[in-house]
Amino acid sequence: MNQTSYYYFTEQPYTGYDPELQKEHPALRLMLPNENFDPKLGAELYNRYHEEYAVADDVGFDGIMINEHHTAPFCMQASINITGAILAKITQRVKILMLGNPLPVVDNPLRLSEELSMIDMISGGRLISGFVRGGGVENLANNVNPVYNRERFEEAHDLIMAAWTRPGPFSWEGKHFQYRVVNPWALPLQKPHPPVMVPGTVSPETVVWAAKHQYPYVVLGSSLEQTQQMIELYRETAAECGYVMGPQHIGYLLRVFVADTEEKAQREGLNFFWQNGALNKQIREWMAPPGYASVDFSGIRKKRAVSKDFDSQAYQEAQDNYQLILGTPDQVIEKIRYVQDLLGLGHLCMWAHDGHMSHEDTVRCIELMGREVLPALREG
Amino acid sequence: MTTATGIDQMVQVGDATLHLLRGGGGRPALVLHGIEGPEGWLAFHEALSRQADVIAPSHPGFGLSERPEWMESIGHQALFYEWFLRERGIDEVDLIGFGIGGWIAAEMAAMNSENLRRLVLIDAAGVRPVEGETVDIFVQPWRDIVAACVHNPEGAEEYRRIYDELPIVDFGGAREAGRSMTMRLCYRPYMHNPAFPAALGAVRTPTLVVWGSDDRIIPVECGRLYAGAIPGARIEVIEGCGHWPHYEKPAELAEVVAKFLGA
After folding, report:
1. Is B143 within 8 Å of chain A by CB?
2. Pick from A193, A186, A158, A192: which is nearest to A172 by CA?
3. At what angle do helices B74-88 and B176-186 cross, to 10 degrees?
4. How many CA atoms lie within 13 A of A107 on its CB side?
5. I need a labelling partner for A279 at 20 to 30 A (CA). Which of A173, A366, B159, B247 fits?
């Protein structure tokens, strides 16, 4: 029996915009006019995605991973805590894995600590509270100075931890956050506090920070080679801190779609490319505004060039590289095992829906995973 | 009394080391750059140095001047430059600022006009327009912003010299620190001090406001707001010129400034 936890994930995409818009707005972000958003369709999609979450809960996933983005049609979750609160009520067993709250863009971390505590209590202690720096564009969308991204991330984290664990009332005089009184009457059910995880892509600083706090680090779909480098950095940092890294410290987000036939899986898998590489088409000023990161950007760019971004890979290439796993349950099990064993994962998030996949196909995929794929993986 | 080019100096001010170029002779003139950052000894510096002791520093956080840990705002920059003048015993100084350099100069003049002789604000940031809008330089490609800062690049030799010698790159490079510092200083509230223009009533330094007629970054309206708020100030508009008169019409600008400073 392996101890890996399996989570279901969808970005909750908004699929109602005209693809022609991408000609004028290649990145499909920040400046994409919101007259192209139809709340009627939004209402349908939100509720549909929630139904699919309930299926994932029923069929045996260990958790549901959720996230947050702003001015982004690829992700409708403008507030991860709203989705988290809904999951607390509509699911019974799954962990609510937030990857995560974008701390730097939060102006009131004390209120955030209260919201998370409420979700933890209402869900009966099922919250895993991930914290994320957020891409540069999230700072712009929330009008938070990108220069302070890391400082605000770290201070908001420290404040939330204090609010959760230090008896109040006390005062907080930080650089970015000040409170006369910290004394929340909403505290987490889990003690000393809900588990924390940290997702990321290529920032070594974040890996080191997570390792120093012994928080699991979840690599968001980077190449296996690049992911291994990040895991190695985590291992080294853990050793410096005097503990041994284990599978429980490492997570990975993997695109997987399962169908009754291979042909069907291959056809639906194309939906993972539905935005035609939009993520990579952001201008530098959105992706990494000046001052956003203290590392040498050219270094990051070079690293990215070595291992191609997902969207710039050919369909078959992405499958050959284990960036995308498609097929019948039998076909995907071995491939998933390979990734899991290679990386030594304690947490595997299955990105199992994207783009224009229908509700029926998504539900079928979730069912096949829960009834056939996950049991096989757990035995293996 | 004249030098061909500015001399490099590193000057200690408190815990910070300030890099500056200095050239010419006569009354001291402190020239403060804008978001474009320091680009060496400019044609404008050279022209002005024929009648003034031109001091052209790189603001802390730009170029070779490292940011002291405490420096987070335009107000801090103004405090720093007052400290610099005191430390170096520079008195009766003419203060000339471009863009955010003009904003720094205006803050200095509003706080303390005693060591200032004349103030020149050129396409200065710092005042929020009422009718128009200051272009958001943080959400567009930098090369587009730079291109929008001149009205007619064909005629702008100085502009072409600077960006031909050291072309704009997307990531990193010598200008990255300045871009980050501009983000730090001017992000929110965007490019203005909410106490302006009201607090500009405190200025007692004779002031000239200079604006490019075709400034596509900060509307000329802001120049009129500056001139209207500073007692006795007047505005001079340079025709057929964009946001960077020192890159586009350096000779004409130097003439206007020199005349005001009193050759």
Report:
1. no
2. A158
3. 110
4. 5
5. A366
Rg of chain B taking only CA atoms, in angstroms: 17
Q: Residue A308: what pLDDT?
A: 58
Nearest Cα to A55, choosing from A90, A97, A84?
A90
Cα A96 from Cα A75, distance rounded (Å) = 18
Q: Where do the structural domains in chain A lie, given as residue ranges?
A: 5-206+259-321+352-379
Q: Would you state the structure tokens that stand for residue A326, as one six-digit string? A: 């498609």
* Residue B1 resides in a domain: no
Burial of A287 (0-12, 13-18, 19+ CB in 10 A): middle
Residue B196 lies in a domain: yes
The pTM of this model reads 0.95
Partner-chain residue, chosen from A30, A147, A297, that has the shortest CB–CB distance to B184: A147
Q: Which residue of B has its CA nearest to A287?
A: B139
- How large is the ipTM? 0.94
Do the Cβ atoms of A283 and B176 come within 8 Å? no
Confidence at B249, pLDDT banded by 50, 70, 90: very high
Q: What is the pLDDT of residue A294?
A: 65
In this structure, what CATH number is given to the domain that contains residue B122? 3.40.50.1820
Q: What is the mean pLDDT of residues B83-104?
A: 97
Number of domains in chain B: 1
Q: Which amino acid, one-letter code, is at A181?
A: V
Runs of H (alpha helix) within chain B: 43-48, 74-88, 100-111, 142-148, 157-165, 176-186, 220-229, 245-248, 250-261
Q: Which domain holds residue B257?
A: 7-261
Shortest Cα–Cα distance, B152 to chain A (Å): 25
Q: Which of B138, B172, B187 sits opposite A297 (nearest CB)?
A: B172
